[in-house]
Amino acid sequence: MVTLRIVALVVVALMSAQPLVAQRAELTKLPRDVRAASQRADAEAVMVYRDGLQALVEYAKSRRDLFPVAALDEPMPLTPEQRGEVRAIWRSFLDYQLALESVRSFHASYQRLSGGAERDSFLVMHGAFLAAYRTALDFIELVDRNPGYEVLLDDAMPELGVDAGTWSRFKFRYLNVAIAAEFAAYDAARHLYDGGNASLLAAAGADRNAIYEAGKGTGPLLTAKNALQVIKDTGAQSWLPLQTGVATWMGDTRVYREGVALISRELVASIRPSLRPGDILFERREWYLSNIGLPGYWTHVALYVGTAEERSAAFDDEETRAWVKSQGEPSGELNRLLAARYGDAWKVSTSVDHGDARRVVEAIGEGVSFTSLEHSAGADSLGVLRPRVPAHEKAIAIARAFGYAGRPYDFEFDFVSDDALVCSELVYKAYEPGAGMAGLALELHELAGHRIIPPNEIVRQWSREAAAKRPQFDFVLFLDGVEKKRSAVRATEAALAESWMRPKWHIVATMSSK
User: Fold this and answer.
1) DSSP string covering 19-68, please?
2) What is this structure's pTM?
């Protein structure tokens, strides 16, 4: 069950659409209601990141072919596939750690607050520190059993935007004697506060005990006064150079566009005439928890099905009519087939979503749902690709998507079962080759013991195949989010083809380089 749990945690934001907790330049300057909301969201985020890290550790422990039970004298030989798996685990682990660091450093100025606000920020900061420390010790112990991993994990990770030597810096941070003093400081300071978030308190207690048992929490005994000074001195320090850039970007961006996407309604309206039923939408939102732990720049994918009127215009060809008739609808009209076969889904699809027509099918936390283009495409970046398949195959894909409507979100990433679906799984199954359907040959990838298709890998596959002159998709458009302009701009096909290579924190680089 470890592998099932870990993947569910990776995509937790897709079920709640909850923004990523941000690092801001001045915690104390936030309006009281905004600060309180941030503290609540940050507390929940710490729990999500903590669970994700612990699940990764448990998964690593279960992979004895990668992480031996006892320490080895010589490096364990690995196949290229195994090396890739180890790096993937480290990449996701580092992603969660980076997120915790950002949350922790945001609340580093908690002592400048007062009353319940001071306590709440301390608990978030303390919880983030303990979750990161505990899981770091567990993971370092696993990695150190194979001396060959020192070099492997010290390689640069451009997909996260971190340089070579990150593993060495990570180990120095968590095995250095200074962190024991920091641990002791937090332990002394916690007695100054009563009450608070029960989940955070319980998690902190469990993590604190685990660290003590590991023999690492043996820093000097401190008075509360001295402890506060230690926390003040160390709380905002970064062990990873990128973290400072991430922190600055998160702070500046989150403050001025709380809840606002870079792609405006007006921009969505301008691209609508370019879309056709059957198109695939690739989306990125900079502020969502789904960005943590999930590999790659693109983190969500949806299927554009259009309105009934759009489908009538798109599927008036002989092949589609013949297929529809073969399904028992004598008129040969796709919409009549959808209405007759998928009555409940049809009713939802023809209703409005906050005043907007429902043109998109996507797997989100509520399950496979019909949403408006304004809602789905209202992201920070959007890429659209058009499958190079006949019209009748797009009609089949849309019919399949209607059939999946209402099914729950697949928190187990089981591509074999149709009982529940994740966002990329919906697209995969809609265009899956079968009887009368050449479809799309999309490549599955290994993640934490499961065969899945991260949205970023679909873009990567298209880019590779397009370069080889055998693409399965045609380029439609790319709206590239530009944080400094507080909007998205139209970008080229070449830019979309290269977008999959962007580091996880792409905007950090673009913000700092301009």
Assistant:
1) BPP---S-GGGS-HHHHHHHHHHHHHHHHHHHHHHHHHHHHHHH-TTTS-
2) 0.69
